[in-house]
Inverse folding.
């Protein structure tokens, strides 16, 4: 195992000196990870899997421990085996197959005392681990205050208690969110204290029911959801520990599909942003709530993962005496508005339509929730509800109710981010970029200033088709033909309505009205295939 103490003495204890980059022919980051033992909580999450893949493929680690809970009657080892055999670890299997043997799943759960670890596993972590990435936390914004605190805040508290016992710990990197201080339009890379001490929040939920936790919740009034609230409390908790542990906080903004690693456009997770794109592409959402001028602060998942890897290195070798925070965001470095996003989606969805689309990916943009719900209800819910009834009558199953609910929930989650703008200061992230030598800058993609949004959206939509919707590339031509047919049918329908309206105005005799309605109805029946 690399000696963290020895490495840190080479560069001092405070801010990174100008000469930290050193030898430009050798990766300093990968050299630091030589022989290290890593613990990842949340390693099976969207970000966690990309982080694990990057560490296995690029860093000569000794071992990686994943804290994994039982899920769907699958044991932790079975979940790990299934994950490592998935498509996203294909490059690891081809390039460094021996690295797969370095990963070990430990049965545990941050919601349990002592993280649910056995005494033997706990002792192993205390004796061996030198780097910890704490990603474990649910991102459900509709969870109760008590659930959010007990899982996120108390889970982080338990992780800190374990880390304090680790003999070789040289870096603990916690993943928060850029929106933990959502009520500040300019967010610096610092912790903003909450009006109530974190341990009091924990006590209020540990020994009380949901009703008695309301006073504590009111002290944190103004938070849009309990996910953001809990992250705000956690940051204050970490601030209290800044002198006892080599800590850092990384705050990603809205995490989206990958830029480069493991594959361009990779995603296997229907998070809020991806879920909305899928809903728009499948024609399930006729309206989206956003303000065109607001900044779309999106960060590709591999940029966030590479930032975590590099932050652990910088914290270990510089050993700052303060809690260093990194705003892993794109808004200040590569500005992109929601209006730009809509423009790119409309362009690339025509070129890369989703093959299973039952209608056109046509949608309107509004900042009004009222108009959004009217459009959603009248243009999508009612027609699909009637269609669903027809499918059930004929004994077929409809996926619309689940998709509709998912699309509605996703819009409710991201509305805060699509109708507001923030300025996230990124001085520490820029400093991290400057400290990487030429080799490390090629290995770790953390500079979003090099990202081209137009190309990225093409890759992202193509990635959704391939990795999430499991659409084969050979089906793209058929999808485009289907899109053109739907487009022709739509404009034909508009033309029929215009002609019908004109005939009703110009020749308003009963016979003409009856004749027009008859031809419109029979044509509609023919188009729908009922005759």
């Amino acid at each position: 195992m690399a000696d963290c103490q020895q490495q840190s003495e080479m560069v001092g204890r405070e801010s990174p000196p100008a000469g930290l980059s050193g030898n430009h022919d050798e990766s300093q980051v990968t050299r630091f990870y030589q022989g290290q033992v890593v613990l990842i909580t949340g390693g099976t999450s969207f970000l966690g899997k990309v982080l694990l893949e990057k560490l296995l493929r690029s860093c000569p680690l000794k071992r990686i421990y994943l804290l994994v809970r039982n899920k769907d009657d699958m044991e932790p080892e079975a979940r790990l085996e299934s994950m490592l055999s998935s498509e996203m670890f294909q490059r690891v299997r081809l390039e460094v197959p021996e690295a797969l043997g370095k990963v070990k799943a430990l049965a545990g759960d941050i919601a349990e005392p002592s993280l649910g670890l056995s005494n033997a596993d706990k002792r192993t972590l205390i004796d061996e681990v030198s780097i910890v990435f704490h990603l474990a936390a649910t991102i459900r914004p509709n969870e109760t205050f008590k659930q959010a605190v007990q899982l996120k805040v108390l889970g982080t508290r338990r992780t800190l208690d374990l880390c304090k016992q680790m003999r070789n710990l040289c870096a603990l990197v916690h993943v928060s969110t850029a929106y933990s201080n959502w009520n500040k339009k300019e967010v610096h890379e610092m912790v903003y204290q909450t009006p109530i001490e974190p341990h009091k929040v924990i006590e209020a939920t540990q020994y009380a029911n949901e009703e008695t936790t309301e006073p504590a919740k009111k002290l944190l009034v103004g938070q849009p959801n309990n996910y953001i609230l809990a992250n705000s409390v956690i940051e204050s908790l970490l601030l209290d520990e800044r002198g006892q542990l080599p800590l850092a906080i990384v705050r990603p903004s809205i995490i989206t599909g990958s830029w480069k690693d493991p594959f361009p456009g990779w995603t296997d997770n229907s998070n809020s942003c991806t879920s909305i794109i899928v809903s728009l592409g499948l024609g399930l959402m006729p309206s989206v709530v956003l303000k065109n001028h607001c900044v779309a602060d999106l960060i590709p998942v591999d940029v966030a993962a590479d930032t975590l890897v590099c932050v652990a290195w910088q914290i270990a070798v510089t050993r700052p005496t303060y809690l260093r925070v990194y705003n892993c965001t794109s808004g200040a470095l590569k500005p992109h508005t929601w209006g730009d996003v809509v423009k790119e989606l409309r362009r690339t969805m025509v070129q890369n339509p989703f093959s299973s689309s039952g209608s056109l990916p046509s949608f309107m943009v509004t900042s009004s929730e009222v108009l959004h719900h009217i459009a959603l209800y009248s243009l999508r819910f009612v027609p699909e509800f009637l269609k669903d009834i027809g499918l059930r009558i004929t004994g077929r199953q409809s996926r619309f109710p689940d998709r509709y609910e998912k699309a509605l929930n996703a819009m409710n989650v991201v509305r805060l981010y699509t109708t507001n703008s923030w300025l996230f200061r990124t001085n520490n992230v820029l400093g991290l970029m400057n400290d990487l030598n030429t080799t490390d800058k090629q290995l770790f993609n953390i500079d979003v200033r090099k990202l081209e949004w137009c190309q990225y959206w093409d890759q992202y939509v193509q990635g959704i088709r391939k990795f999430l919707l499991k659409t084969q590339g050979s089906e793209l031509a058929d999808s485009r033909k289907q899109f053109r047919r739907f487009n022709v049918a739509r404009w034909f329908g508009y033309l029929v309505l215009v002609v019908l309206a004109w005939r009703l105005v110009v020749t308003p005799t009963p016979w003409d009205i009856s004749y027009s309605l008859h031809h419109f109805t029979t044509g509609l029946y023919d188009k729908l295939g009922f005759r």
